[in-house]
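Each letter names a residue; structure tokens follow underneath. Both lines appear below:
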Amino acid sequence: MRQQDIDILGSQVLPPQGLWIGGRSVDSLAGATVDVFSPIDGSKLTTLADGGPRDVDRAVAAARETYENGVWRNRPPAERKKILLAFAARIEAHALELAVLGVRDNGTEIGMAYKAEPLSAAGTMRWYAEAIDKLYGEIAPTGPGNLALVHREPLGVIGIIVPWNFPLMIGAWKIAPALAAGNSVVVKPSEVASLTLLRLAELGLEAGLPPGVLNVVTGVGSGAGAALAAHMDIDVLAFTGSGPTGRRLLEASARSNLKRVHLELGGKSANVVFADAPDLKTAAKVSAQGIFRNSGQVCVAGSRLLVQRSIYEEFVAEVARFAGAMKVGDPLRLETEIGAVSSEAQLRRNLDFAGGASAEGARLVCGGGRILEATGGSYMAPTIFADVAPNSRLFQEEVFGPVLAATPFDDEADAVRLANATPFGLAAAVWSQNLSRAHRLSRAIRAGVVHVNTYGGADVTVPLGGFGQSGFGRDKSLHAIDGYTDLKTVWIQL
């Protein structure tokens, strides 16, 4: 990856973007569009087709046709595997193009975006391609007069709603197992970050996906998103995003056809540091990266730092030193470590949280405000508040920005109490060289993922999902395939 190549791709003029339905780009039936502005400098990038209910109808019909005629689901798993492997290869071949396109759209720093978006998506696609011809059905232990078979079958048309922070990575977590299992798919990306998923659909067609198996309808959530959620011919709706939107999707399912809904929602993840952590300097560096990379716009970000009181002041200061040394700036520059906040609206939300934390009595350690405003882009300094009260808004609510809440604890029981003191339960971390303590806390903390002496790094082989108001969907691993297949029993009288 060379800066020269990034600069060339980053200067390309983007044409208006249509919907991707039935293997081709089409305008919305109403002709409506949405302007796309880059958070890097505030400039207009392009326009998206603003899909409405009739456009969702078209996309769902295209997906349903391919499902019913069996052009994809009736192919042997080994043939689906071959096409999905070709799909993964196409993503890798266009990795830099996809990474730069995504950075221009949502502001993630290019070093992170390249690995976390196209390369991750390609790896996910390849993993599920390799897995799908290795899943077997079952023969039940019946008596001698019967034979009972248990088949795993695709569910039909899958609706997928993807957030703006990592659209390719999170999109692939859902698209890959759904396609591998034989389903047809309609994706609704965030209007803040749709460009890479539109390009992904083109690459799928080039790799051999039949037209109509993978469709992308862009537009605002109240239009295309709501129509997808309420559609009577969507069998499953898989969503990653906010809690309020997740609740609306459940309501839409109840009002429509009782479609299955898989929700991966927000987090307020606790990063718990004990005085006996193996290397406190490393813990401080990883803790800073765990909240400030991608401007904190990561669902599993370690946004609550819980530190044992005996090392609290020293450790928080060390995290602040690492944060202050991280370079914030143009996300298309290779030296940048923290890119732009995704939009002006999200930046205003972040700043509102920072102002509220000060008003509630938290102590500002560093940051707290907007920076690089002269660029026209949306940038915020890495921000740390200390002495954050457990009942405060900053402790309880997800910011989804570069804002860290630090709180001291006294002992294991206090650490567990504070870690579990929010309605969320997506991720957590425990830093301690005491193996017994690490096991005790990893069981006691209510979270879908608990890291020990690290933060992040879990790959596609293990599931991701949360407890409580972090939702109940599961992405990644073989368990994800359960969300896109159903079990059918065949009982045979011999």
In short: The mean pLDDT is 97.
